[in-house]
Amino acid sequence: MTLSLYSGLIPNRRFLLFALAALACARSAHAQGAAGIISPAQKSVLASITGSELKGDLSFLASDALEGRYTPSSGLDVAAEFIASRFRAAGLKPGGGQDYFQVAHMVDRSMPKLPTPLTAQSKEGSFQAAPESMLLFNASQAGKIDRAPVVVFAAPDLDALNRADVAGKAVVVRQPSFEKMNQDEVVSAYQKMIAFTRQVNRANATVEIIATPQLVPSNGRLLTADAAAAKATPVVLVRNEHLTSWFDHPAEAHGWTLSLEIPAPQDRPAVVKNVIGILPGSEPSLKHTAVLLTAHYDHIGTTDTAGRMALTPKDVTEDHIYNGANDDGSGAVSVIAIARALANWKPRPKRSIVFMTFFGEERGELGSKFYGEHPVFPISDTVADINLEQIGRTDEIRDGKPAPQVNAASLTGFDYSDVTDYLVRAGKQLGISVFKDPEASDLYFTRSDNDALAQQGVPAHTICVAFDYPDYHGLGDEWQKIDYANMARVDRMIALALINLADSANAPHWNASNPKTAPFRQAQQKWKAGSPVVADQTAQ
């Protein structure tokens, strides 16, 4: 699960711990599909999803040999080939442009340290910010900024930015105080910061200076689509009291200029792959529509690549590989296991089922965003996405205490769409409690790959067993710590829900009575009206 929406612009902190939700769902089961009777043959298919099978696949995918599956890396490429081989063995139809691979050409950008101070000047005097108090987040080329006039924004206010003339100027903006916000406010603030930075770039500002109370360690790498890499206004995080004083007294910034030397980034071409297999539908009137089962197969690599995403200090162990067994090797091998089982389901599902593993979730949900812009099935024919995150560990921590999650799973955006009903009903049939975590449900809806599909208007959710557990983004997240028997039971429940979705005559829909679904419903209306929905494809 990705640590943040825009990791270089926000402070590093561990996922929030949640209060235990003991209430199982009592929602009415108004979802369409089979009535709930499972034939002996179908029970046998579900039973073919076993802990030993999952253990065998994950012990390779999360092994040291793949070196943490960083995007991009040779370990990630091996993982993609491994997943494709499993889809091939299951008899799935290749769903990528190159066999099972949907190939994306990106730029892996390394940002050097700033070589000289930032100098601010006015008639009243001057001051400097030392290089060690700055962090270059992005730039497309080397350049020398010479006395660019300052425009100050006390907050990343997009409306105020659009009213200002910032072309050729230095935009100075205060980083939001994330630590003082509640959970919904944090998510909203992330999104506003992203939108503000994009608009600064479009408005041809000379540089964006983000005044921050503290600098967060970073590996200095950015992964971006080719087009986004071509032109990028330099973005620099700066810790400096003089800059901060401007936000309380904006008039004091009048007449000031900023000068700064921007070093050239080091760009490398990166070829990365989503892995896609398709189980074609059997009903002529429905097989052109699809249900997605997804997970990301990347992780954060090694102590050399992980940067601020890592939550284990380098000096506490000799281990240097972040294996990512639970996050999200468990989701990737679950997609494989469910695909292998449902390939034998009789009768075949009416809708097509797309089994997919994404690259680059840990670097900003890049693989799912890429798929959203290049879908195998048109977005208008994609009825739902069930995304899997952290399915294997049951040793969850809630409110600072152990809270084992056995025969239970949570769903993000629990009240957002009818997809929830399918999972709840399948859970009741198979003895898995699918419940709403009142804290995690909404907070984590935008923190995984389901978000990229939801932003396109597709009802999409992430199912998770443990949101927070020992070794999250740590060196100790290894395959030996997975509860494989429980993971198999949860996967059987997901498989049954997936079949019921695929056999449903009516597609699930967003919950119009929940105001938080408004942007997703609006996106859906855009493609229904024939307008494209474009995702951002830049992240660390």
Description:
With 540 residues, the chain is α/β, with parallel strands linked by helices. It folds into 2 domains: 34-108 and 269-528, 3-Layer(aba) Sandwich (Aminopeptidase), CATH 3.40.630; 112-264, Glucose Oxidase, domain 1 (3-Layer(bba) Sandwich), CATH 3.50.30. Helices cover 28% and strands 21% of the residues. The chain has helices spanning 40-47, 51-61, 74-90, 158-163, 183-202, 226-230, 241-248, 325-342, 366-373, 419-430, 440-443, 450-454, 484-503, 518-528, and strands spanning 93-94, 101-110, 118-122, 125-129, 134-138, 143-153, 170-174, 207-211, 221-225, 235-238, 257-262, 266-279, 290-296, 352-358, 382-388, 397-398, 401-402, 408-411, 433-435, 460-464, 538-539. A hairpin with a 2-residue loop joins strand 16 and strand 17. Helix 2 (51-61) packs across helix 8. The longest helix has 20 residues, at 183-202. The two termini are 14 Å apart.
Determine the N-to-C terminus distance: 14 Å
Supply the number of helical segments: 14
Q: Using the coordinates above, name the CATH class of the largest domain.
A: Alpha Beta
Q: State Rg.
A: 24 Å
Categorize the overall geometry: elongated
Beta strand count:
21
Which percent range fits the helix content?
Answer: 25-40%
The largest β sheet comes out as: 11 strands, mixed
Strand content: 15-25%
**What is the CATH-assigned architecture of the largest domain?**
3-Layer(aba) Sandwich
User: Would you tell me the structural class of the helices and strands?
Assistant: alpha/beta
Total discrete domains: 2
CATH superfamily of the largest domain: Zn peptidases
Q: What is the arithmetic mean of pLDDT? A: 89
- Parts with pLDDT < 50 across at least 5 consecutive residues: 4-35, 536-540
CATH fold-type name of the largest domain: Aminopeptidase
